[in-house]
Design goal:
- The protein is α/β, with parallel strands linked by helices.
- The protein folds into 2 domains: 7-36 and 296-426, Lyase, Ornithine Decarboxylase, Chain A, domain 1 (Beta Barrel), CATH 2.40.37.10; 107-290, Alanine racemase (TIM Barrel), CATH 3.20.20.
- The protein is built from 12 helices and 20 strands.
- The chain has helices spanning 21-28, 37-52, 70-78, 88-96, 113-122, 132-145, 182-193, 215-235, 262-279, 292-295, 329-333, 422-426, and strands at 7-10, 13-16, 19-20, 32-36, 58-63, 82-85, 104-106, 126-129, 149-154, 198-204, 241-243, 285-288, 299-311, 315-320, 339-341, 351-356, 365-372, 380-384, 404-409, 412-417.
- β6, α4 (88-96) and β7 (104-106) form a beta-alpha-beta unit.
- The longest helix is centred in the middle third of the chain and has 21 residues, at 215-235.
- The protein binds pyridoxal-5'-phosphate.
């Protein structure tokens, strides 16, 4: 159907990675997150063929905040990628899944001391420092253990990824990363270089998310390469590692662009090589951190349609049994999604309708104005490309239990995360 990843129509019904979606909805109930292990593994393998196998001394880590479960950690590990974590909770999950700590990268713009302690104790491969506060805390933690902790600095390159306008001087308004302004740069560099228990490895940047053109990545890279040259000149320090972040776009709507990984990494690697040739520096070890790109199109969400409310001359609201607690993205940043009625896959569109979530918020609208075959109560609605930042951002607003996650693969299915129960909802209450 319209080239949606993993979707086929068989006998008027939608199939995903070989599984009948109506059957899955009946078996597991709705709302239901369905993740295709085939697509996740394909994406990991594309990262390998287009990046890690293609260049010497590079690495790819999955940004697990996009979708983290024990099951997912094991899949990522078996595909040979590393993983990035941004909190004590994500670190805990990765370690519980048996993920090798040396392949973890620890991020976050406001890490707590307890989080930094567990990161150091568990032996995570790299910690990406985001402030002087963290440098000082990490030095104390490492000194107390008489260990060396390897750190990178996250920097704010000052590239506006939404409009592709460059902010070249000052006023770099971001809570992420250390500012590169010359008035404070020395303070940051001295802090890390003068910390006897910190091993400074290099720099990290992440320009933003769901970016479909490489312009902002390349602009940010240019700024960070200048920083690498300055660091060599001012401190005699060679940058050994360079982490380019993630942000590669996926398709939410059938006509969305599909830039792929090569579009970003090939010109960036070329630019780094040229820089090293021109300056006589050794190639740094380059890491990328795709999150959404690995899981976004690997997931869909199934809902049961309940109420259908036609406001004559205005709009038809089609109510479903989930909404903003299982997918906050439309309410949070006006994200657009595409959907189909799984049991009416062969039928042509009949109505333009609006898919409404069940929460007590007028903003709880999953999709505004989508053409669907005539919807009826009891139909199963499939919303596509929900694999990233849906399950991981889910809440219990209105006391809605969070949906189950089912992993499908070539016609087989297994429960990966069970549905929350009403008892679960009260389990922390005294
Ligand atoms: C969120 C994030 C990523 C992944 O972003 P995607 O858009 O999901 O690829 C990578 N690195 C860092 C530091 C992030 O915060």
């Amino acid at each position: 159907m319209n080239g949606i990843n993993g979707i086929e129509v068989r006998n008027g019904g939608l199939y995903f990675d070989g599984n009948d979606l109506v059957g899955l909805a009946k078996y597991y109930g709705t709302p239901l997150y369905v993740m295709s292990e085939t697509i996740i593994r394909d994406r990991c393998r594309m990262i390998k063929s287009e990046f890690t196998d293609k260049y010497p001394d590079v690495a790819a880590v999955f940004a697990s905040k996009a979708f983290q479960t024990l099951d997912m950690c094991r899949i990522v590990q078996s595909e040979g990628l590393g993983m990035d974590v941004v909190s004590g909770g994500e670190l805990y999950c990765a370690l519980k899944a048996g993920f090798p700590p040396e392949r973890l990268v620890f991020h976050g713009n406001s890490k707590t001391v307890a989080e930094m302690e567990s990161a150091v104790e568990s032996g995570v491969g790299r910690i990406v420092a985001d402030s002087l506060y963290e440098i000082h805390a990490l030095e104390r933690i490492a000194a107390a253990r008489n260990e060396t902790v390897r750190v990178l600095y996250r920097v704010t390159p000052g590239v506006d990824s939404h409009t592709h306008r460059f902010i070249s001087t000052g006023g770099l308004d971001s809570k992420f990363g250390i500012p590169l302004d010359r008035s404070v740069r020395d303070l940051y560099m001295r802090a890390v270089l003068d910390s006897p228990h910190l091993g400074f490895m290099g720099f990290h940047f992440h320009v933003g998310s769901q970016i479909s053109k490489n312009i902002s990545h390349l602009a940010a890279l240019g700024i960070v390469l200048d920083l690498i040259a300055d660091t060599k000149r001012d401190y005699g320090v060679e940058t050994r590692e360079l982490n380019l972040g993630g942000g590669f776009a996926v398709r939410y709507l059938p006509d969305d662009p599909d830039p792929g990984v090569t579009h970003f990494v090939a010109p960036m690697m070329e630019k780094i090589k040229r820089f090293c040739a021109d300056t006589g520096m050794a190639m740094p070890r380059v890491t990328i951190e795709p999150g959404r790109w690995i899981v976004g199109e690997a997931g869909l969400t199934l809902y049961t349609i309940g109420s259908i409310k036609e406001i004559p001359g205005i709009r038809t609201y089609v109510g479903v049994d989930g909404g903003m607690p299982d997918n906050i993205r439309p309410a949070l940043y006006d994200a657009k999604y595409f959907a189909a009625i799984a049991n009416k896959a062969g039928l042509p569109p009949a109505d333009i309708v609006t898919i409404a979530g069940k929460c007590c918020e007028s903003g709880d609208i999953l999709i505004r104005d989508i053409a669907l075959p005539k919807p009826e109560s009891g139909d199963i609605l499939s919303v596509f490309s929900t694999g990233a930042y849906n399950h991981s951002m889910a809440s219990n607003y209105n006391r809605l239990p969070r949906p189950a996650v089912v992993m499908v693969r070539e016609g087989t299915h297994r429960l990966s995360v069970r549905r929350e129960s009403y008892e679960d909802l009260l389990s922390r209450e005294l």
